[in-house]
């Protein structure tokens, strides 16, 4: 069959779950029997999300091939159960960069380089590179955004070239509810559909997000003004379990609607198992990006997908000024602690205090990336007595650089895309807890995103073999660098240099999170 396209645009405001919706549609259509692929288009000028602040933009998701992506690629992986690559994300930055590079190389042969056709051609070329029978394309931002316009234009052209009947356009909007007058207000949605139509795109379906379930009259209004049948208006009220969405879409027959329009026959079978009830455990995620929960998305989802309530993000900065007793007072309500990844000095002393508390009190602790590096620093300072031990990231003149930049990184000056990135193989050592957690596998691929490494060559005395006596850290996995450390004299004290959270999927959460929650009990 020729390729088909489901295009998801957004209206009214951002942050209403377009990414979740797109991931859910992708899963729905996969279940309906198609070879589905996904593309997130980000109209911002950043080349990738790697240089963006998690407080503003949420977590940076890292793919196996070392691409630093928008967090929506995390949703796609978790919902679809398939690993994404750099091809699954296109930013305006990438598009313009390649057009300008081509221009400098003289490849446009003297023509005036313009938004249309040169930029649109580049966008279409990138879309065409993606494999799959059915492509779900999510356009970031909302219609009417200046930088998004060119992508709508490219897709409008693509639909003309390929045939409009191969395209299914879904517009996701928000309908606010006014408490004072007890009514839903559809005007912003009407206007947003009009904006979309001005770009030459008529929607085949309008998905209205709302705080609570909408009434029939309001839905009819959306249908009338949006120019779609009533049963092509899908209301999705707020839910605290986003994994319900594929099931809801299935029960509303969205797969059949899409199939009908695209001339495809769909399977009715639907195999989607996700957690529906959540045990309460108090897990603290000690971090410093507090602007939005999205900053730690994949970690929070990893715990949630195991059937536990999400961890609470605890401000590392707040712990920083507390005395030891006060730290214990704050943390004693928690059954387990995760120390978050991060960059820069702010918050590290608070995280180190949380680690000291967990190590001394036998509280299960999982340190991820920076979290593991700080476990090494805490151990150096408080067990080895190395006063002022630090990472050279935070204190270039430390007398004990237990975490340091490796030679190959030192030459790199630029910040974008220059870290140790993506999936790399490591060896896991028998006799360690990690080895058991990985089910006795001696090799694994894990994803990375960091610059600094454990300086084991310089400080070998901090570590011991699994069967050795003494209170020392055990190196439980290694590549060229230290990949994981643990303590044997503790219920669960494990730090990993890689990011297990990027590998968790619905029904297949990374074993480290499982083991961590089991240790909590
Ligand atoms: N800042 C640390 C490094 O660059 C850790 C990075 C992280 O936690 N992702 O090595």
> What is the CATH H-level superfamily of the largest domain?
P-loop containing nucleotide triphosphate hydrolases
Shape: globular
CATH class of the largest domain: Alpha Beta
- Any idea what the CATH architecture of the largest domain is? 3-Layer(aba) Sandwich
The largest sheet, given as strand count, sense and whether it forms a barrel, is: 10 strands, mixed
Q: Could you give the count of β-strands?
A: 24
Uncertain segments: none
Radius of gyration: 25 Å
Defining key terms:
521 residues, alpha/beta, Rossmann fold, 2 domains, ten-stranded mixed β-sheet, seven-stranded parallel β-sheet, globular, binds glutamine
Question: Concise description?
Answer:
By secondary structure, the protein is an alpha/beta fold. Helix content is 33%, strand content 21%. The strands form five sheets. Strands 12, 13, 14, 15, 18, 19, 21, 22, 23 and 24 form a ten-stranded mixed beta sheet that branches. It has a seven-stranded parallel beta sheet with strand order 5-2-6-1-7-10-11, with helices on both faces.
Explain the overall architecture.
This protein is an alpha/beta fold and 521 residues long. It has 2 domains: 4-262, Rossmann fold; 283-520, Class I glutamine amidotransferase (GATase) domain (Rossmann fold). Helices cover 33% and strands 21% of the residues. The strands form 5 sheets. Strands 12, 13, 14, 15, 18, 19, 21, 22, 23 and 24 form a 10-stranded mixed beta sheet that branches. Strands 5-2-6-1-7-10-11 form a 7-stranded parallel beta sheet, sandwiched between helices. Strand 14, helix 14 and strand 15 (365-368) form a beta-alpha-beta unit. Helix 4 (92-104) packs across helix 5 (115-128) and helix 5 crosses helix 6. The model has no long low-confidence stretch (mean pLDDT 95). The structure holds glutamine. Glutamine is lined by residues 341-343, 369-370, 373, 393, 449-452.
């Amino acid at each position: 069959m020729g390729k088909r396209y489901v295009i998801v645009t957004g209206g009214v405001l951002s942050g209403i779950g377009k990414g979740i919706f797109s991931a859910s549609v992708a899963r729905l259509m996969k279940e309906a029997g198609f070879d589905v692929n996904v593309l997130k288009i980000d109209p911002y000028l950043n080349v990738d999300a790697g240089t963006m602040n998690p407080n503003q933009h949420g977590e940076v998701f890292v793919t196996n091939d070392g691409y630093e992506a928008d967090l929506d690629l995390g949703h796609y992986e978790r919902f679809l159960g398939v690993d994404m690559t750099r091809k699954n994300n296109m930013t305006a930055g990438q598009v313009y960069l390649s057009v300008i590079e081509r221009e400098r190389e003289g490849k446009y042969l003297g023509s005036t380089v313009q938004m249309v056709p040169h930029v649109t051609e580049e966008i279409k070329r990138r879309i065409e590179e993606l494999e799959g029978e059915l492509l779900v394309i999510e356009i970031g931002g909302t219609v009417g955004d200046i930088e998004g316009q060119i992508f709508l234009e490219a897709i409008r052209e693509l639909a003309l070239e390929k045939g409009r009947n191969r395209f299914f356009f879904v517009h996701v909007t928000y309908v606010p509810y006014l408490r004072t007058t007890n009514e839903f207000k559809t005007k912003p949605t009407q206007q947003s559909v009009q904006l979309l139509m001005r770009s030459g795109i008529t929607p085949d379906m309008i998905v209205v997000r709302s705080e609570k379930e909408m009434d029939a009259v309001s839905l009819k209004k959306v249908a009338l003004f949006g120019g779609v049948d009533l049963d092509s208006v899908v209301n999705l009220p707020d839910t605290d379990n986003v994994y319900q969405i594929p099931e809801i879409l299935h029960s509303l027959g969205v797969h059949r609607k899409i199939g009908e329009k695209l001339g495809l026959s769909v399977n009715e079978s639907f195999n989607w198992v996700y957690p529906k009830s959540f045990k309460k455990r108090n897990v603290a995620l000690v971090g410093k990006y507090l602007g939005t929960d999205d900053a730690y998305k994949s970690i929070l989802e990893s715990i949630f997908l195991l059937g536990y309530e999400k961890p609470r993000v605890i401000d590392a900065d707040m712990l920083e000024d507390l005395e030891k007793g006060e730290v214990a007072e704050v943390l004693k309500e928690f059954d387990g602690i995760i120390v978050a990844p991060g960059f820069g000095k702010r918050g590290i002393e608070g995280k180190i205090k949380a680690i000291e508390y967990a190590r001394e009190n036998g509280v299960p602790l999982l340190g991820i990336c920076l979290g593991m590096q700080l476990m090494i620093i805490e151990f150096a300072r408080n067990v080895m007595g190395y006063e002022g031990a630090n990472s050279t990231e935070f204190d270039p003149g430390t007398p004990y650089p237990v975490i340091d930049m490796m030679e190959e990184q030192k030459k790199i000056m630029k910040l974008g895309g220059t870290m140790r990135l993506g999936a790399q193989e490591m060896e896991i050592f028998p006799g360690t807890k990690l080895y058991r957690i990985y089910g006795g596998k001696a090799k694994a691929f894990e994803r990375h995103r960091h610059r600094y490494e454990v300086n084991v060559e310089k400080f070998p005395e901090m570590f011991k073999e699994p069967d050795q006596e003494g209170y020392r850290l055990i190196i439980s996995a290694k590549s060229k660098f230290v990949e994981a450390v643990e303590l044997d004299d503790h219920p669960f004290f494990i730090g990993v240099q890689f990011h297990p959270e990027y590998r968790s999927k619905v029904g297949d959460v990374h074993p480290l999170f499982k083991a961590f929650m089991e240790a909590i009990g």
